[in-house]
Amino acid sequence: GPDGIGGGGGGAEAAGGCGALLAELRQLWGEIGKSREERERTVRELEMECMRVYRRKVDEATAERASLHQSLAAGEAEIAALTAALGADSSPQLKVNKWTMSLNDRVSAATNLLEELRAMKAERSKQFTAIRSEIDKISTEISGRSYGYDNSPRASEFDEHDLTIRRLNEYRARLSSLQKEKSDRLHRVLEHVTEVHSLCDVLGEDFIAIVNEVHPGLHETADPGKPTSISDSTLASLSQVVAMLTSEKTKRAAMLREAVLPLVELWDLMDLPEEERRSFRKATAVLRPAREEALSSGVLSIATIKKTEEEVERLTRLKAGRMKELVLKRRLELESICRSMHVEPDTSTVPEKSIALIDSGLVNPSELMASIDEQIAKAKEEQQSRKEIMDKINKWLLACEEEKWLEEYNLDENRFNTGRIARLNLKRAEKARLIINKIPAMIDHLMSRTLVWETERNKPFLFDGARLVAVLEEHKQARLRQEEERRRLREQKKLRTLFSEKEAMPHLKRPGSSFGRATEPCNMSRKRVDAAPPSVRSSSGSSGSSGGGAADPFRPRSSAAAGSGAGHCGEFFRSGGARRLSAAAPFNYVAVSKGGGGGGGLSSSMMS
Length: 608
What we know:
Strand order of the largest sheet: 1-2
Oligomer: single chain
Keywords: Microtubule
Shape: elongated
Structural class: mainly alpha
Protein name: Microtubule-associated protein MAP65-1a
Region (Disordered): 491-567
Radius of gyration: 65 Å
Pfam families: MAP65_ASE1
Helix content: 55-70%
Number of strands: 2
Family: Belongs to the MAP65/ASE1 family.
Order of helices and strands: HHHHHHHHHHHHHHEEHHHHHH
Strand content: under 5%
């Protein structure tokens, strides 16, 4: 009935609303005067219409439920696929309770999870794409398949069903390995390019042209948008270029060395000024192997080598015209070295003879120059071996100079005057006496050292043409004779003093005594003088006769020293025209006569 119509709504509010409408409809029907059959027919129509509406709603609800189940199943299937692709460990899981949650809630939860998983897949796919793109690009650069650079390189296909973190890490490891290999290759390429640039700079070659033959993108002026080629072929080509340039560098260095060696010899031979040498100073670095790597720019270029060879030819022609001057210069150098050693230079290359040989054309000037250079080398070696002995000779001669000065100082009657100069001379005299006392030891040591030198070299030590040991022995004997002469003079002085005292006391004479008897001491003294060596008697006689009176066996000590100083070191240098040893002038031995006046002396002389 009509009440069933209201009760089919399924709710109290809906039933109350339908019942009120039905009551109002019945009231209206009563007022209208509808028959019962019409009323029942209308009610049945209403019930049928309500049934149709309900059925439609039920069908719609059923379809919606089925759609939700289908959507949920599809979502769960996609969630399962995405979870499998992304990895269960790194993917969120769907957590729903089908017993407590409605289909809409379950579908909503699945939809949210599905969106999250899709976003993760898109991000993961982007990472895979980027990594694979970089891998493909580096692999292409290493293989050298393409020299171009594509800003959007086509990534190789990858399995979209395996987007796990494990797979991503494998791709990352492979990319890291390729990046390391690329870095190593790039470093090797840069090393090769740097070496090629350095070699081209030294050899004066065109760096850009040589590098372009290997790859056009290897130099600084290349297109910055293109990557540096790191392929095996590029590395192999660069290695070949480096080897070729290194071989060329070695070859040119040998060529330049062959040109520079005679150039330096000509410089030294001709004593050229620094201004003429300056332009070729960089080329001489090739003679120092330790600095070969530091050769300046273009020093091994063909132009530099040719210029050096031309300079050698020019100096060779110039040398021919200056050979006489060079020979004389070398000869003077040899004489200077020999003069410092007090030896005679080789007479085979005296200036007059050398010039005559050059003018006659009998001797090659270069051979003559080589001969003089060899003599200079031997003279320098000899000078070095004689250095110690020459130093001792200089000390001995300086001591002799002090002895000579002291002798003159002792003859000075004003040496005891007051004054600054007198005090300085007095101090010098004290030092001179100490030095003079060492002269015998100096001579002995010098003789022993000279004998060792002669033994080692099996030849005599010559000094201005005389054997040094013989000269030292003569000087040593002369000093001994001088000491004997001084002792004799001291005895004569004592006898003269006694004679003078006797003559000053005539009252001591006895009557009838004769002069000869009073002068017996003097006669005894004269007998002692007569018993002296002939040289001493001759010296005394000449001294007495020079006074213009009778022969006097007694004379002042100063006069005696002036007349009989043959063994004295000062007289040794004052007699015979001897000169002081120096590096600038040759030293002469003193010629001392063994016979006649002078009391004996040196028998050999030093030839200038």
